[in-house]
Structure formats: structure tokens, C-alpha cells
């Protein structure tokens, strides 16, 4: 009897087992399909591609579309947060950063800079400090944090940041510039000059120095004049003016003119400020004003060849060739008198080129 029951039960057991296995396979397939659908969608793919192309508005639209159907997607939340930060909607970005979870250094930089652009200074300071807690020598974070602290005029923090930048690889020029700006704003002229001269030592071409070049040179010139080093100030500004013959930066000329006028008042017997003012007016094509300054410089230094050469240029532009020729003759005479006596036993004069 028992054997008959087992024989009758066996087909039913096999059928149930087969149904269970088929159901398990179907469930596994459904779970796999759900997982694929969660992690991949046409909208998310479009968002990735748009972000790679720099199309932030398009990326944001696709990211939000994906989040509307799959609100748990961290990748879509992160893309939306990045776009909002870069589009200057820092406040709106915050909730999406929270949904994205832990951020890497690059995304922390995007978030922090978005806060800076949105003028959320205290939150930006906290964001950059968060970056520096992970990467203490991150020059980008140090430089941007310094800019925020500078706007807040937090002197102790700025001095500490300058030291950190100077010690960080690739940050010395930025750190010395920051130290110089802080000293300049604080009227510490000696300290500012020392810092700016360090900048020129580590970055002579000013490729890493973060200020506009005209601001750097005008700060340095002003501080040099204040401590009585007028000749050096004139030399620095003259060099910059020579490097920009078309003078497209009117702010540089205005700042240089102000510095040289002050120098001319403080040192009325020094020809250099008058000479430099003449060169500024020459670049502005204000020829009569240039002539007056250069003639004043000539009265103070009648044998200074660079002054005389500039006067020749001005007189020719003014259409006064006789005056230009007269000064040209004077230049030749000065050069002849300054030449060393030739040794008759020496077939080549030492001053020959």
C-alpha cells in the first residue's frame, strides 16, 4: 500500500518541483531586468553624453527626467548637482549633492566654487576646508579659499594660507603674491615689496602669479615709491610699458601715471619720473604732453641718451625735423665723447660690435 502511494505521489512532486524551478528562473530574470532598468535608461545615457559635451542645461533636463522615474539614482542626482552648481544655482544644487552621497575631490571643488560664485562665502569657506582636510596641499583649494578670505579681510587666516601655499608644490608664487597683497592692503610697504620680490624670484615671467599683471606691477611700483626706491619703481613700470607698446590696458597707464606723478613731486631733481610720464603720453599719442615731460627730463639729465632718443621720436611725429636732427646730433656727440681712446696697437677698438 505504501509503495502504491509513493508511485502515485511521485509525478505530483516532480511537477511541483518543475513549477518551482520555472518560477525561480522567471523571478531571477525579472530581478535582473529591474536592476538593468534601475542603472540604465535612455535619459541617464543622454545626460552623461550632454555633460561630457558641456551642455549643462540639456544634461540637467535629462538628469531630472531620470530622477522623476527613479528617484534613488545617485548618478543622476550627482549630474544634476554638478549642472546646478556650474549654472550658478548653488542653493538648488545642495539637495542633489545630499542624494548623491559621498563626493570625490573633483565634485567637492565644483560644489565649493559654485558656492563662491553664489556669494555664499561662509559655506564656501567650510567647503574648501572640507577639501583641505582630505588633501592638505591642494593648491586649487588653497588659492580659492584665500580669495574668499581676502574678500572677508580675515588677516590671520590669510597669513596662514600664504604660508601653506608657499610650502605646497607649485604654490610658492601664489603664496608670496597673497602675502604681498595682504601687506599692501595693510600699508606695510616693506613687507609688500619683500613678498612681491620673492614672486619675481620664483616666477620671473609671472606665469603662475594670480593677479592681473597690471595690478601686480602697480602695487609693487606704489610700494617701492613709498619706501623711497623711486628708480626701481620707474624701471619696473617702464619695462611693462615697453612690453605693451600699443597700451591696450588703459588701467595700467593710468596707474603708472599716478605713481610717476607722485614720484616727480617727491623727488623733483630725479629725471626718471618725468621721462616715464613722457613715454606714457607718447603711447597715448598725446605728443605735446609727451614733449613737455621729456623736455623737463632733459633739463634734469641733459646727457641721458634714452631721454634724447624719445625726444627725437616725438619731434619727428610732431613734424619738426629740424629739432629732431638737432637732438640727433647731440646724441652722436655724447656717444663720441663716451667712447674709450683707441690703442693704436690694437687693430680693433674694444667698443666695436
Task: Write up what this structure looks like.
It is built from 18 helices and no strands. It has helices spanning 2-39, 42-52, 56-69, 74-86, 90-100, 105-117, 121-134, 139-152, 155-167, 172-185, 189-202, 213-226, 230-243, 250-266, 271-283, 287-300, 305-317, 321-338.
Assign a percent range to the helix content. over 70%
Apparent shape: elongated
Q: Distance between termini?
A: 129 Å
Could you tell me the number of beta strands? Answer: 0
Structural class: mainly alpha
Strand content bin:
under 5%
Write the layout of secondary structure elements.
Blueprint: H1 2-39, H2 42-52, H3 56-69, H4 74-86, H5 90-100, H6 105-117, H7 121-134, H8 139-152, H9 155-167, H10 172-185, H11 189-202, H12 213-226, H13 230-243, H14 250-266, H15 271-283, H16 287-300, H17 305-317, H18 321-338
Helix pairs in contact: 2-3, 2-4, 3-4, 4-5, 4-6, 5-6, 6-7, 7-8, 8-9, 9-10, 10-11, 11-12, 12-13, 12-14, 13-14, 13-15, 14-15, 15-16, 16-17, 17-18
Please sum up the structure shown.
The protein has 18 helices and no strands. It has helices at about 1-40, 40-50, 55-70, 75-85, 90-100, 105-115, 120-135, 140-150, 155-165, 170-185, 190-200, 215-225, 230-245, 250-265, 270-285, 285-300, 305-315, 320-340.
Defining key terms:
353 residues
Amino acid at each position: 500500500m505504501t509503495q502504491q502511494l509513493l508511485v502515485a505521489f511521485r509525478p505530483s512532486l516532480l511537477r511541483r518541483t518543475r513549477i518551482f524551478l520555472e518560477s525561480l528562473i522567471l523571478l531571477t530574470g525579472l530581478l535582473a531586468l529591474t536592476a538593468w532598468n534601475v542603472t540604465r535608461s535612455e535619459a541617464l545615457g543622454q545626460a552623461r553624453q550632454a555633460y561630457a559635451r558641456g551642455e549643462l542645461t540639456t544634461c540637467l533636463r535629462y538628469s531630472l527626467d531620470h530622477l522623476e522615474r527613479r528617484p534613488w539614482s545617485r548618478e543622476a542626482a550627482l549630474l544634476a548637482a554638478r549642472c546646478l552648481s556650474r549654472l550658478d544655482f548653488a542653493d538648488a544644487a545642495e539637495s542633489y549633492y545630499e542624494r548623491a552621497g559621498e563626493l570625490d575631490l573633483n565634485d567637492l571643488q565644483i560644489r565649493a566654487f559654485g558656492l563662491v560664485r553664489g556669494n555664499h562665502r561662509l559655506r564656501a569657506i567650510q567647503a574648501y576646508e572640507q577639501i583641505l582636510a582630505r588633501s592638505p596641499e591642494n593648491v586649487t583649494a588653497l588659492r580659492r579659499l584665500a580669495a574668499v578670505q581676502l574678500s572677508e579681510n580675515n588677516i590671520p587666516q590669510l597669513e596662514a594660507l600664504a604660508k601653506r601655499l608657499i610650502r605646497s608644490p607649485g604654490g610658492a608664487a601664489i603664496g608670496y603674491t597673497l602675502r604681498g597683497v595682504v601687506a599692501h592692503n595693510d600699508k606695510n610697504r616693506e613687507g609688500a615689496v619683500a613678498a612681491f620680490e620673492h614672486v619675481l624670484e620664483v616666477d620671473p615671467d609671472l606665469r603662475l602669479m594670480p593677479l592681473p599683471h597690471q595690478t601686480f606691477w602697480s602695487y609693487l611700483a606704489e610700494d617701492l615709491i613709498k619706501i623711497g626706491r623711486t628708480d626701481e619703481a620707474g624701471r619696473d613700470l617702464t619695462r611693462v610699458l615697453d612690453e605693451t607698446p600699443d597700451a591696450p590696458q588703459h588701467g595700467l597707464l593710468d596707474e603708472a601715471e599716478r605713481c610717476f606723478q607722485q614720484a616727480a613731486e617727491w623727488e623733483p631733481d630725479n629725471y626718471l619720473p618725468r621721462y616715464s610720464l613722457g613715454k606714457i603720453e607718447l603711447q597715448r599719442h598725446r605728443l605735446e604732453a609727451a614733449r613737455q615731460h621729456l623736455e623737463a627730463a632733459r633739463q634734469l639729465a641733459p646727457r641721458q641718451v634714452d631721454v634724447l632718443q624719445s625726444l627725437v621720436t616725438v619731434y619727428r611725429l610732431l613734424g619738426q625735423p629740424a629739432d629732431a636732427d638737432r637732438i640727433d646730433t647731440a646724441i652722436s656727440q655724447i656717444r663720441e665723447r663716451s667712447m674709450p681712446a683707441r690703442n693704436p696697437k690694437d687693430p680693433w677698438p674694444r667698443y666695436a660690435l
